[in-house]
Known about the structure:
- The chain is mainly α and 827 residues long.
- The termini are far apart.
- Helix content is 64%, strand content 5%.
- Helix 22 packs across helix 23 (580-612).
- It has helices at residues 15-24, 37-59, 62-71, 79-104, 107-131, 153-165, 171-190, 196-217, 226-235, 280-296, 308-324, 362-365, 375-390, 425-443, 445-455, 458-464, 475-480, 486-499, 514-539, 541-545, 549-560, 562-573, 580-612, 617-646, 658-687, 689-703, 708-715, 717-743, 751-767, 776-787, 792-808, 810-823; strands at 240-245, 254-260, 272-278, 331-338, 343-349, 354-355, 403-405, 411-413.
Amino acid sequence: MPDVTPAAPTKPPGAAARRWQAIILASAGDGKTRRRASDAVRLAGAALVFVVSVAVIRWSPSIEIRLAHLLNSPPTGIHWLITVLWWFGALGVLTVALVSGLLSRRVALLRDAGAAALVTWVACLGAGLLLGSTGGRPPSSDLGSIDPGFPSVRIALTVGVAVAALPYLSRALRRLTLSLLWLGILSGLVVGACLPTDAIGSVAIGMAVAASVHLVFGSPVGLPSMDSVADALVDLGIAVDSVTPLARQVWGVARFVAHRNGPGPVPADGEELDVSVYGRDAADAQVLAKAYRFVAYRDSGPTLLLTRLQQVEHEAYLTLRAGELGVRVPTVVAAGYGGPSRDAVLVSAPPPGEPLGSFRSLGASGGTGGHGVEDRSLECLFDAMASLRAAKVAHGSLSPETIVVGEDGAVALRDFRCSSSDAPADRLDRDLAGALTSAAIVAGTDRTAAVAARTVPTDVLAAALPHLQPRALDPVTQRALDGHKEVLDGLRRAVADAAGIDMPELTELRRFSWGSVLMALGTVIGVWAMIGVLVNVAGSLSTLKGAAWGWVATAFVLSLFPPVVEAWALVASVFAGVPVRPVVALEYAKSFTGLVGGTPASLAVTIRFFQRRGADSTYAVTAGALNSAVSWIVKGALFLIAIPFAVGSWNPDQNTAGAHNGLVKLLLVVIIVIGVLAGIAGLVLTFGRRIRRIVADKIRPLTTKAFEPVRNLAKEPGKFAALIAGNTGSQLLTAFALGASLHAFGVRLSLPDLLFTITIASMLGGVSPVPGGMGVVEAGLIAGLVGFGVPEDIAVAAVFVQRLFTAYLPPIWGYATLVWLRHGDYL
């Protein structure tokens, strides 16, 4: 027989490329990127370090300078080597990131590194402009040849690129990159390129930028690899055939489904197992979630657990505890540390059945009730809630996914990661609200209410109804309600009717709203601006004493008439037949409501007033908005008319009111940004076909009645002229009051100059989140007057007089007129 030499085994195509990628890159896990809690913690920590560094830099302790000189004294013979290392550290890190991205063709690596480099450079540029080239460090002759510049762009840029690229690199390459990084920073200190605190602050900038990049684009180490999860299961004594990540992941916990092929702690070959892996992110995620809930919500949620194993033990214990109470739950198979990263792992066998959300839902039934879930399943669900409630055990994350319905109709609960023992009543009420909503999504509001009324005690239902609101529900349930927001209102009414109880007010779950935060921020800005105004007023007391009091009285009289003119215009144009006197009182009352609650409060009072006079809410809202729009149109027209006459005499460079000028520039930037955003919105509305279709199909029918005041004005030009005349008169009277205040101190400005100044100040006050524009308007007026050549002390005194009569005192009689309106049954 002829010799037959066996052919050498051929390598699969691409094997060499994969081998090189394995040397360069880390494991890609499931190939997806995710936002990690650790990056958020890193961002917060870096921001704190940066703030502390700036404070130390401004203090400039002598011990730091002595330490810098101690480091900055290498032997002369190796000084060249230290300088090379200083340059090589930065260039080496950048080279590693660039070459790794190019060789591996990993676009995400290049994207993150490039974005980190660009943003870090911009951040350093902004820090230099804001803090100065030395970060505010006082000049010192003791520094010698050490560079006091802050931040160090080279250090910040290197750290930002390195930290952004690290998750993509293999362990060996990560160690090389970190070695080059710290070698470069230490060399920079030795050659005197920066001071220690400057280096720390620069590192903080790079860390913060890299964390921000990962939060925006996601990190490739969001999930452990399938092999590492399988290894962790082997460490727990469980052999599996396959491991698959779930499509929907929870922040801080990696969730998988495994299929077992051999005997284990629970003998059932081939069964499906739920695997929860609590990695290093888990503790960070819980700390962030706990901190957010503590700040934002009245109930901060379950007890804070600081280690991964504690979280696994907590979930396992409460799962077992719920099972002891008669609730069908997953079978806990194993719990402990496992895998190469020593992650905490919880393995459980899910209860038989399908998630409640897999049955007919609102998308198919429109909320009128699906037939896939029987009443006995709903009764079983509410019985389980009663069992948990009796033991003060709260599930914490009830949703159509965590409620499982078996073939026999029995209901089981899974995923006890957010559960808590000895739970307060509010938390138990939210659990029942989650169960009610999940049932209503599938079975409809009427069926759910009927079953709940005969299964749940009336007092328990009454306590749960105020929690039927989106913020009290699990995020999965909230997403299931998208497009069906009416379900919660309908469920509240249906349950109240079925149980024979009154509809309660919704419970306020949040400690604050974004509106209140904005109002508080605006108040701080206003107080800060007002302090600056009052300080300047105190310095202008001698000027105030020399005022011509006749002109001061004239300013007072002129300030009384704008509300009267505005009331006349409103009655003559929109609300014909309404007596003028109460409308005048309403305009005065708005000076109080605007100070206390801002524009929303004034609008609410106006709507209430005209509703009491027989106008429906839509007409009243549109009329109030129309009046405000015409007011701004008039201001804009007068401003445009005044510009050609005023701009030639206005010179902002002669403005010496530093704080006021800075605030004015800041708010002008805000105005420009708002204008740009409004322009983008206009383009979208103009060219977006889908948006135009939505507007035509859904919004336009709702606005037909809303435009009734506009149509009425279009039919009667005289009324429109009255509205224009009233708002024009109000603006002119306000300008005359400012002119009279200037006359009181011997200064005269033309009417265009006054209109220009007042309009700029009104725009600043309008875009600032300050109630009544308090403090911001004053800053704008002072800056404007100084720009027209008015001495600063006179500008401060004149603005104080004008605002005294138009802003500070009117809330006093505004409150009195508000009380009169209420007693007269006008509100």
